[in-house]
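Re: your question about Alkyl transferase

S., sorry for the slow reply, the queue was backed up all week. Below is exactly what I fed in.
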Amino acid sequence: MADNEGAGEQILEICYKAGVKVVTIYAFSIENFKRSKYEVDALMDIAKIKLSQLSQHGDLLDRYGAKIRILGHRSLVNQEVLEAMDRAMELTKSNDK
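Result:
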C-alpha cells in the first residue's frame, strides 16, 4: 500500500484482498445532529474531506471495482458535503462491486 493512502483506503484494500464483498461504513448518526453547531460543522468538514480523498484516489476504487452508495437523510447534510457525496457516487457508478 502506498504511503499516501489513508486508513480508509487501506481498510478497503485489505477487505478486497480478504474476499469481502460488501463494506458498510456507518459514518454519521442522526444523534450527531444533537451536538453543537460547531461540532456538527466539524463532522461535516471531515465527511467532505474523506469523500474528496476517496474521489481523488479513485484509481483504488476503480482497480477493485468498488461502488460507493450513500444512504440517509440528504436534507440534513450541507451543500458542500452533498456535492462531495454525489461526486464520489458518480465517479464509481459504473463499478460493479
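The chain has a mean pLDDT of 82. The first helix runs from residue 7 to 17.

Happy to talk it through on Thursday.
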